[in-house]
Design a protein that fits this description.
The chain is an alpha/beta fold. 36% of the residues lie in helices and 15% in strands.
């Protein structure tokens, strides 16, 4: 049975981040993930994890100033220094909190820079830092974001991501597979997850097309989870969606899996 992870950036948002750990544990979760945990000191997050018997399974590198449109630096030529600084911050959190996966956000395209140059920068950055992350027991993940909602994001499809991963060819650099994004960009996300079995180190899920509870809309969530089971996916499935009811976190559908 797939192991579910509560994304504390998306769930229990009626509470301050510090209180969401206890809320997740109370609902039966054993694992959580956070997009950007940096509003709290790493030591406080580690204390909440211990107090609530939770594992932190994924965080993102700092993305820069999102109010100005920044979405990370991993694939931006000339931003190698900012990428390295973001990685150092994330690694410090990962080590303190025992988090084994870091999502390296690719970033948005730069005016006048061809896509191939962005991809070359991504390959170079990941190849350079992969050994450092491996020594710390960290897997780096790449997540394509759908072009419908993220038209300027550099990484937009699983095919593009796999081509990058094949060039990097490091065992601790892997795909982050999001059913919601694949639904919007490529369609047939369950079939695509099966095709890419063994290539992803983390999975996220939401209802399609509106990103509410996974049991709403066009994605058959139980079929998706069953396919991951059949393919012997060993990792976590992060619940990254907008609950219709914040007080219940939209978790009624998940009871059989917790």
């Amino acid at each position: 049975m797939p192991r579910l992870s509560a994304n504390l950036t998306w769930l229990f948002t009626e509470l301050p981040l510090r209180e969401r750990f206890a809320a997740a544990a109370k609902r039966g979760f054993h694992a959580v993930e956070i997009l950007f945990p940096y509003e709290l000191p790493a030591a406080e997050i580690a204390a909440e994890l211990r107090a609530n018997k939770l594992e932190l399974v994924l965080i993102n590198l700092p993305p820069g100033d999102m109010s100005k449109g920044e979405r990370g630096f991993a694939a931006r030529p000339g931003d190698e220094g900012r990428f390295s600084a973001a990685l150092e911050t994330a690694l410090a959190y990962a080590k303190t909190c025992g988090c084994p996966r870091l999502h390296a956000m690719s970033g948005v395209r730069m005016d006048g820079v061809p896509l191939s140059a962005h991809e070359d920068a991504l390959v170079a950055n990941l190849t350079r830092v992969a050994p450092q992350c491996a020594a710390a027991g960290i897997t780096l993940t790449l997540e394509p974001l759908n072009a419908k909602e993220n038209p300027t994001y550099i990484l937009q499809s699983t095919a593009q991501a796999i081509a990058i991963l094949d060039r990097v060819a490091q065992p601790n650099v892997a795909l982050q597979f999001d059913f919601y994004h694949v639904f919007h960009t490529e369609g047939h996300p369950i079939e695509r997850a099966h095709e890419l079995r063994g290539r992803f180190a983390h999975v996220q899920i939401a209802g399609c097309p509106d990103r509410h509870e996974p049991d709403t809309g066009e994605l058959e969530v139980r079929a998706a989870l069953a396919q991951l089971d059949a393919d012997n996916y060993p990792g976590y499935v992060g619940l990254e969606y907008k609950p219709r009811s914040t007080t219940e976190a939209g978790l009624g559908w998940a009871a059989p899996y917790l």
